Amino acid sequence: MIESSENLQKPLEAMEYRKRVLQLCITGYNKKQRSQSDLLFFYKLYIQSQIENKCFNDALKTFEKLRLYSLNSSNPQDVKVRFCCP
Q: What is the three-class DSSP state of 84?
């Protein structure tokens, strides 16, 4: 459906489908059926779609919902620790 919407040049419709896919991925991640990399990939696609549709405030809000690591941290080790194995 996303590809069809893009081919028909309906970016808002494609964005809504990406949001639904992201919601399914979040559900799968919470049930341990999806990996963290899958989750990040679908967040990336959804945020890109929001930016393409000039929904910048929504993109920022979506980015803030991504609670895998603190974006307020000035220490790059926080990100490294979160994504590396112990």
A: coil
**Pairwise CA distance, residues 33 & 86, whole Å:** 21
- Containing 85, the helix (H) or strand (E) segment is none
Per DSSP, helices labelled H in the chain are: 2-7, 11-30, 36-52, 56-65, 76-83
pTM: 0.74
pLDDT tens figures, 4-52: 998 899 999 999 999 999 999 989 988 999 988 898 899 999 999 999 9
φ and ψ at 24, to 5 degrees? -65, -40
Quote the CA–CA distance of 59 and 49 in Å, as a whole number. Answer: 9
What percent of the chain has pLDDT above 70? Answer: 77
- Nearest alpha-carbon partner for 67 in 51, 45, 43, 46: 43
